[in-house]
């Protein structure tokens, strides 16, 4: 290949790349890109057609409709969620993310759209006392990079063997095989899972876990996005008041989680 | 770049690196022990002897390592028969599941490397062995394996470096190897750049050691291959 041909080829390839870049950026300006995980039923998961569905997704769509904004919902692995938001891969996270002081240093949050709690889950017919003394030597699981995982490491890490999973599904799977004596999970998804065929042999153990602060779930956005934050907050308030929120809530839980 | 984070968590990252090394070393050693007999079978003239190792190698080279790990860790445990058997003592532990997956995977790749090396031995050397009246076992022990070892060495060094990096997949089955450790820490600190840079640096160091080790072995075992002319540029014999 002659030098000139190589130069032409490189210019062409560079041109195509530049074109795509400009293309996506122009596109990004008009729409709000919302990320969710897709592995956290019933809040966000994929249906048989591979589409993202669930409570989070419906809330996100309701908010977009209220804001009259054009939204795309994208899928993102949980532990890369905040880095990707900061890297401008998308503009907001609606993926049942708890508002914590550590996360607030990295990102900003809207008003909470539901309140979460942690609970122990174990096999039916086994005794799993949930005070620290009785948990000594047990193997407990949770999803990596979650409040539940941090609770295990911080509060029980010195007495139990902690196993962290990439998705909640994998943690359930491993408890079903008996590798785990139990797991700590967010209460509502566990409530949903316990009603499925896979979860029928398991139950909540002990009381709902009391954490220092109430676990509020919000929409994460980048710092210094005051305008977007106000838009979300206003829309959230509107869907709570006009009953849209309640309708979505009732589809998933017989009690209010707001 | 927040250097405090890196310094603070370095001990934990090194702890993870130790597990990474253990995984690579154990599965590497068992892998070679499986690969050598498989390579000999693969080099056999009879297709009936070749077919079984061929299927094994085809499967483990043809599917992603991640799938193999998931099949062994999450897949096998779905069967109650497995959970009730003695195998469960081993398969229950993510560490051993990772060892099994890595071992079988590297055994498949190495077996093909070794087969190529065995078939690359100059015909004359094998003829010489036959002329001496060596039987198959003696010929294999004295000529085929030592010669194939030298021929396969550079390519095998490559395989070990690849394995070192593939071992990062152990983090998907709850193991706290170097990658698992970095992922778990950054999940709390939200400083992926710092932690993955630090982890990448440790991987580089480990790969450097592996590369150096193989270079040393190559210089030693293949020294007859390195030709240094004993004449200067003008073609005059050096004193």
TrEMBL record, chain A:
| SMART domains per the UniProt record, alphabetical | PBPb (SM00062)
Q: Which domain of life is it from?
A: Bacteria
Q: Quote the InterPro entries the UniProt record gives.
A: SBP_3_CS (IPR018313), Solute-binding_3/MltF_N (IPR001638)
The entry's keywords: Signal
Family statement: Belongs to the bacterial solute-binding protein 3 family.
Q: Which PANTHER family match?
A: ARGININE-BINDING EXTRACELLULAR PROTEIN ARTP (PTHR35936:SF17), MEMBRANE-BOUND LYTIC MUREIN TRANSGLYCOSYLASE F (PTHR35936)
Quote the protein name from its UniProt record.
Amino acid ABC transporter substrate-binding protein, PAAT family
Organism listed in the record: Neptunomonas antarctica
Q: What is the lineage of its organism?
A: Bacteria, Pseudomonadati, Pseudomonadota, Gammaproteobacteria, Oceanospirillales
TrEMBL record, chain B:
A single cellular component GO annotation: ATP-binding cassette (ABC) transporter complex
How does the protein's chain sit in the membrane according to the entry? Multi-pass membrane protein
What does the record give under GO molecular function?
A: transmembrane transporter activity
Give the principal location in a single coarse category.
membrane
Q: Which residues cross the membrane?
A: 20-40, 52-75, 95-114, 195-216
Coiled-coil ranges from the UniProt annotation: none
Print the keywords alphabetically: Amino-acid transport, Cell inner membrane, Cell membrane, Membrane, Transmembrane, Transmembrane helix, Transport
Reading the lineage from the top rank, the first entry is Bacteria
GO BP term (any one): amino acid transport
Q: Where would you find this protein in the cell?
A: Cell inner membrane; Cell membrane
Record domain ABC transmembrane type-1: where: 17-214
The entry's family comment says: Belongs to the binding-protein-dependent transport system permease family. HisMQ subfamily.
Against PANTHER family, the record matches this protein to:
ARGININE ABC TRANSPORTER PERMEASE PROTEIN ARTM, MEMBRANE COMPONENT OF AMINO ACID ABC TRANSPORTER
Q: What name has this protein been given in UniProt?
A: Arginine ABC transporter permease protein ArtM
Q: Please name the source species.
A: Neptunomonas antarctica
Q: What is the lineage of its organism?
A: Bacteria, Pseudomonadati, Pseudomonadota, Gammaproteobacteria, Oceanospirillales
